[in-house]
C-alpha cells in the first residue's frame, strides 16, 4: 500500500530536496504539489517546483499555483537564503505548459474530497494555501489522513526573528487560522515539525559527496558542478552550495538545515520523531513576537490539544535516508538519461 502524499511548497532549496525525497520514496505516491509564495515569488516557486519534478522524472505530477501572497500582509521573500530565484546557484527551466490550470487551493480541496481519510498533506511553506483551502472546505482536516506542518519554534530560537520561524513569519494570520481549525474532531492531530527538531539534522558536504558516490556520479566536493550526464546531481550540488554558504554566514557551520525533507520523512514515518500533544496558537499582534508559535505545555488555557509537536528526532537516521534515497533517484536518473 502506497501512501498518497500532497505537498504544499514554496520551492526553495530545502523544498526542492523535500520534493526529491518524496519522489524517491517507494512507499509514497506523490498526488501533486501546490505552490505558495514564500521563499521566492509564486511564479518562481511554481517554475522551480515543476522543473525539480521534471528533473526527478515526474513530469506527470500536477504543479498548481496557489496564493501569491499572505492573507493580510505584504509578501516578504528571502533570496539571501535560497538565491535570487530560489534554487541557489542552480538554474532550472520548466516548460510553461507544465503548470496546472487548477489552483493550488482547489488541488488541496479536490484531492482531500476524492480520497477521504487517505491523503497526508505536508505544508512546507507559509500556511496561506492551507488556510484558504480550509475556508473553502471547513471539513478539510477531517478529510485528510493527516496534516503535517513544517514551521514554528518552541524551545529554540527563531530563525527569522528571536521567537519566530520563517514560515510562520511570512503569514502568521494563516497559521493562526489553521491551528484554530485543528483538533476539533479531526482524524488525527496535525504533526508539527518545528525548528526544535529540524535543526537537529545538519546536512554536511560529506553527505552530498556520499550521495554522488552512491549514485555513481563523479563529484569530489561541492565545487561548481555541471554534469550533462547527470543534471539532477548537478542541480542538487549547485543549489546546496549556495544554501551551505548561507548557513556558514548565518548559522556558523558550513552545511545546511534540511527542514522540509525532514518533515516529509516524518510524514511517511512518524517513528522518526517523538511528539508532545499540546495546544498551539500563533501570535499575530506582538510587538516583538509576531509569528511566534506558542504552545500551552502546562495546560494553562484549558483548551483541547490541536497539535502533536515534534521536539526531538532521529536526525542521523533521517540523514541516512535522505542520502540513500536521493542517491537512488539520481542513480536511476543517470542510468535512464
Ligand atoms: C522554512 O523556511 C524556509 O526558508 C524553508 O524552506 C523552510 O520551509 C524553515 O524555517
Ligand atoms: Ca519551505
Which structural category do the helix and sheet elements fall into?
A: alpha/beta
Relative strand content: 15-25%
CATH architecture: Alpha-Beta Complex
The name of the CATH topology is Inosine-uridine Nucleoside N-ribohydrolase, Chain A
Strands ordered across the widest β-sheet: 3-2-1-4-5-6-12-9
Number of domains: 1
Report a brief summary of the structure.
This protein is an alpha/beta fold.
Task: Explain what you see.
The protein is an alpha/beta fold and 337 residues long. The chain has one domain (3-203, 252-336): Ribonucleoside hydrolase-like (Inosine-uridine Nucleoside N-ribohydrolase, Chain A), CATH 3.90.245.10. It contains 13 helices and 12 strands. The strands form 3 sheets. An 8-stranded mixed sheet has the order 3-2-1-4-5-6-12-9, sandwiched between helices. It has a two-stranded antiparallel sheet with strand order 7-8. A two-stranded antiparallel sheet has the order 10-11. The longest helix has 22 residues, at 315-336. The chain is globular, with a radius of gyration of 18 Å. The model has no long low-confidence stretch (mean pLDDT 94). The structure holds beta-D-ribofuranose (BDR) and calcium ion. Residues 12, 14-15, 39, 78, 81, 124-125, 150, 159, 165-167, 259-260 line the site of beta-D-ribofuranose (BDR). Calcium ion (CA) is lined by residues 10, 12, 14-15, 39, 124-125, 260.
Keywords for this entry:
alpha/beta, binds beta-D-ribofuranose, two-stranded antiparallel ribbon, 13 helices, 8-stranded mixed beta sheet, Inosine-uridine Nucleoside N-ribohydrolase, Chain A, binds calcium ion
Amino acid at each position: 500500500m502506497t501512501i498518497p502524499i500532497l505537498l504544499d511548497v514554496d520551492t526553495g532549496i530545502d523544498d526542492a530536496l523535500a520534493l526529491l525525497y518524496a519522489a524517491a520514496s517507494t512507499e509514497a505516491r506523490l498526488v501533486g504539489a501546490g505552490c505558495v509564495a514564500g521563499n521566492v515569488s509564486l511564479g518562481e516557486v511554481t517554475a522551480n517546483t515543476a522543473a525539480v519534478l521534471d528533473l526527478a522524472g515526474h513530469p506527470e505530477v500536477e504543479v498548481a499555483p496557489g496564493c501569491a501572497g499572505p492573507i493580510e500582509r505584504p509578501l516578504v521573500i528571502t533570496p539571501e537564503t535560497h538565491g535570487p530565484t530560489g534554487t541557489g546557484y542552480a538554474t532550472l527551466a520548466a516548460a510553461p505548459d507544465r503548470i496546472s490550470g487548477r489552483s493550488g487551493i482547489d488541488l488541496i480541496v479536490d484531492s482531500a474530497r476524492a480520497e477521504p481519510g487517505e491523503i497526508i498533506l505536508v505544508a512546507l511553506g507559509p500556511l496561506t494555501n492551507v488556510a484558504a483551502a480550509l475556508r473553502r472546505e471547513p471539513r478539510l482536516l477531517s478529510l485528510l489522513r493527516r496534516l503535517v506542518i513544517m514551521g514554528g519554534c518552541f524551545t529554540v530560537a527563531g530563525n527569522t526573528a528571536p521567537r519566530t520561524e520563517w514560515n510562520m513569519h511570512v503569514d502568521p494570520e494563516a497559521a493562526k487560522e489553521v491551528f484554530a481549525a485543528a483538533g476539533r474532531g479531526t482524524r488525527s492531530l496535525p504533526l508539527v515539525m518545528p525548528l526544535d527538531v529540524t535543526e537537529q539534522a545538519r546536512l554536511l558536504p560529506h553527505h552530498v559527496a556520499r550521495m554522488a558516490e552512491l549514485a555513481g556520479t563523479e563529484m569530489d566536493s561541492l565545487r561548481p558542478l555541471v554534469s550533462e550526464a547527470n543534471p539532477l546531481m548537478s542541480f542538487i550540488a549547485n543549489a546546496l552550495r549556495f544554501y551551505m554558504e548561507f548557513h556558514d554566514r548565518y548559522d556558523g557551520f558550513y552545511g545546511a538545515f534540511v527542514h522540509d525533507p525532514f518533515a516529509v520523512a516524518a510524514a511517511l514515518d512518524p517513528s522518526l520523531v517523538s511528539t508532545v500533544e499540546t495546544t498551539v496558537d500563533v501570535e499575530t499582534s506582538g510587538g516583538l513576537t509576531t509569528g511566534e508559535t506558542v504552545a500551552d505545555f502546562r495546560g494553562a488555557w484549558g483548551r483541547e490539544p490541536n497539535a502533536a509537536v515534534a521536539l526531538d528526532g532521529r536526525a542521523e537516521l533521517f540523514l541516512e535516508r535522505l542520502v540513500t534515497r536521493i542517491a537512488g533517484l539520481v542513480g536511476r536518473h543517470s542510468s535512464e538519461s
